[in-house]
C-alpha cells in the first residue's frame, strides 16, 4: 500500500469515529422570501448546540451555534439577515402604497386638482395595484388631506408631507433596483405634467421623492427633464 493512501484511509476511519453534531431547537417561525426557493415560504428560526460525537453518539458539548433560518420547503439554512427582505406579498403592498403616496403628494402641491392630473394619477395608482381607485376618490383624499393639515396648494413640500413621503419610500428604496426607483419618480413627474409644466411646488415635492428613493439630485434633474420629452 502506498504511504499516502494509508494516511487517507486512517483519516477516513477517524472521521467516521469522531465528529460533531448540531442539535437544533426552534425559537420562532413566520414567513419569509426564501433565496433558495425564490419565493415566499414558511420558516423556522433555530438555535443550535454543537456536540462532540464518538461513533455517532454525542458525548461532549462544544458550544452554541446559530441562530439560523430554516426554510420549511427546501430545508436550507440561511443567516437571519434574510428576514430583513420583504416577502413578495409585503413588497407588492409597499410598492402599491408608495405609488399612492407619491400620487397624492403631487396632486396636493399641484395648485389645483385638474381633471387631467386626476386621470393620470388614478391610472397610475390602479396600475400599481389599487384596482378600484377613481379620480373622485383621489380628489376627496387630497381635499381631506388639505383640510386636516391646513396645507395650501402650490406651496413647497412642507415638513409633514416630506415625512409622509419618507415613511412610504425609505423602507422600499433598498429593495428596488435603480430602474425601479427611477420609475416611481417618473410616474410622479408624469402626473405633475398632465396639466402643464411643473410648478415650483411640484418640482420641490418630486425632489423630495427622489431624495427618499436615494436618487442623487443630478439624476432627479435629468429624469424630470426626460419626463417632459414625449416618448
Automatic annotation (TrEMBL):
Show the CDD domains listed in the entry: terB_like
Q: Which residues form the Co-chaperone DjlA N-terminal domain?
A: 116-222
Q: Which domain of life is it from?
A: Bacteria
Q: What is this protein called?
A: TerB family tellurite resistance protein
Q: Which InterPro entries match?
A: DjlA_N, TerB-like
What SUPFAM superfamilies does this protein map onto?
TerB-like
Q: Which Pfam families match?
A: TerB
- Origin species, per record, is Streptomyces luteolifulvus
Gene3D superfamilies linked: TerB-like
